[in-house]
Amino acid sequence: MTQQETFKVCVFCGSSFGNKAIYAEEASKFGIALAEKKWGLVYGGGSTGLMGAVARGCATNGGYVHGVIPEALISRERTDEETLNDKLKKSIDNHDGSTPIPDSSQYGKTTLVKDMHTRKRLMAQESNAFVALPGGIGTIDELAEITTWCQLNVHAKPIVIYNIDGYFDNFLKTIQGFC
Questions:
Q1: What radius of gyration do the chain's Cα atoms show?
Q2: Looking at 5-155, which runs of residues are DSSP E strands?
Q3: Given 3-state DSSP classes, what are the helix, strand and coil percentages for the chain, each rounded to the nearest 5?
Q4: Which long-range contacts link 137-145 to residues 24+ away (Cβ below 8 Å)?
Q5: Mean pLDDT by 10-residue block, N- to C-terminus, for the chain (179 residues)?
Q6: How far apart are CA 164 and CA 157, in angstroms?
Q7: Where in the sequence is the domain holding 99, given as residue range(s)?
Q8: d(Cα 57, Cα 103) in Å, to the nearest integer?
Q9: Is 50 left (phi over 0), alpha (psi -120 to 50) or beta?
Q10: Residue 69, in any domain of the structure
């Protein structure tokens, strides 16, 4: 199976670890499980927090990883290598679209994009399914948008909320109130 034929799961999650160690443990295990299943990971491109944990779990176990990161988040979410950050910053100066960044053994392929809208669109195009792990407002934004796209018949891909240790309980109650 080629990279284009590989079943790819888009994971939305936090760029921080959150307040419970179990979030990072489960994010790493999820990345490992994707690699073992020979499924690819598409994610927000960060090396920090849960994003970094899921990407490392997948990439270091032989899985395909594609991170998509907007210019505005480079310095906050991609702190793995100074040389990589230097290359990214130089790339931003001449940026006119999406820019591939050299592969990393820990984080796979990374594509630099102009903004969050482009990030979400590219992540959706590259994926066959979506999974939300714990995160903040950005994760909720991504989850809400991809769910809206499903309601509007833009896609019919599965959407899963991985409710680690009840993290999404209040969110799910709120959503049920809308129905």
A1: 16
A2: 8-12, 40-43, 65-70, 99-104, 108-113, 129-132
A3: 50, 20, 35
A4: 138/12, 138/14, 138/15, 138/44, 139/12, 139/13, 139/14, 140/171, 142/12, 143/12, 145/120
A5: 76 96 98 98 93 95 94 69 52 49 70 92 97 97 95 96 98 86
A6: 22
A7: 8-38+45-177
A8: 16
A9: alpha
A10: yes
Which pLDDT score, from 0 to 100, does residue 101 have? Answer: 54
Output the pLDDT for position 94. 46
- Does residue 50 lie within any of the structural domains? yes
Looking at the domain assignment, is residue 12 inside a domain?
yes
Q: How many helices (H) and strands (E) does the chain have?
A: 7, 7
**Which tokens sit at 148?**
């809206």
pLDDT of the residue at 105? 66
CATH number of residue 69's parent domain:
3.40.50.450
d(CA 120, CA 10) in angstroms, rounded, equals 10
49, two tokens: 């927090």
Domains identified in the chain, total number: 1
Asked if residue 2 belongs to a domain, the reply is: no
